[in-house]
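Narrative of activities, Objective 1.

The group set out to show that a structural description can be obtained from nothing but a protein's sequence at a throughput compatible with the screening campaign. Below is one input-output pair from the validation batch, recorded exactly as produced.
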Amino acid sequence: QVQLVESGGGLVQAGGSLRLSCAASGIFFSSSIMGWYRQAPGKQRELVARITNTGSTIYADSAKGRFTISRDNAKNTVYLQMNSLKPEDTAVYYCYSSRFTGYWGQGTQVTVSS
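Output recorded for this entry:
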């Protein structure tokens, strides 16, 4: 059974930081592309950052210079370090894994107050 369990969301003031974690089970983690997406109220889900099995990363323009995605294959966990948070970063953040099939986590709420 595949499980992607996100944690680390919460309420933070603008300019603050949060670190999201996604613990995966039931997948070939080390060979999977892992990503973080977010969905704000009334908006479509969008890619925030993605990391391949070889460690290559891509970021949305809104995340560049502020967010860092990383992975620990020994712990089957992917992280998203978010710094200099802005109110427009408020959203539900979802973990995503992709190898031959894609899977989503249940999401974790991030709220940034001004």
